Amino acid sequence: MSEASSPNDVFINCPFDADYAPTFQALIFGTVACGFRPRSARELDDGGQTRIEKLYGIIEECRYGVHDLSRTQLDVEHGLPRFNMPLELGIFLGAKRFGDEVHKSKRCLVLDIEPYRYQKFISDLAGMDIADHAGQIDKVLHRLRDWLANVSRKRIVGSVKLVDWHRRFVAEKSAIATTLGHDPEQIPYIDFERIVAQWIAVETA
Amino acid sequence: MSEPATKSKPVRKSKTAPVRLGRNTLTGGYVLEPYPKKGGTDPKVIRAAVEAVIASRKA
Q1: A87, A110, A132, A168: most buried, per Cβ within 10 A?
Q2: Hey, are the CB atoms on B26 and A194 less than 8 Å from each other?
């Protein structure tokens, strides 16, 4: 049995480009607000391991995984799609399928921009429930909250309240970042996670 | 007769064990500290900045 797998950890597998940043930050916020710890490739800063080894480690440690495939599209510069997210989804599904009892309890949420678009580029997922979010942050939060409540059976804040918290957090994020000496548009990931967690702890105390 | 002495091993805190930052009064659940990472700003400094901004909104 893997001792490292945590029922509190959620692997966030999504794009990290600037356009997607508000959605990524909403996923981090929603995960913490629902009582879990987000994990992502953004935390990989140790030069001692290859990137794929680090990803194996994170995926091993997470019971839950959120995989957003909405950016599976051709890159303007190269005319090729970026396949990191489908690859990491595949590793997660492989761990669940072939791992020990702990890994068999893994659960994943697959998100895409439209309900059945995935059938055109990753048809082997047919039969799985893919949640669409139409690129809307509120919808992403609803999907994340409802799924975490369903798979974890934890008592989790309602989705309307979650969206309300998130809007209030976004309104105050810049002031907090400025107080800490950061550019509000480029808050380091480690600090962003800590800001989110402290904001929720103070706001809900 | 005295009980046999037991050697207690120091308990090593797992890196993955969640640390609770506080209780969410709305749900009764806990707010967990992020997975531990090296570097970044001291969480106490971040807490102070967050408290100041929230306090100014509530004032």
Answers
A1: A110
A2: no
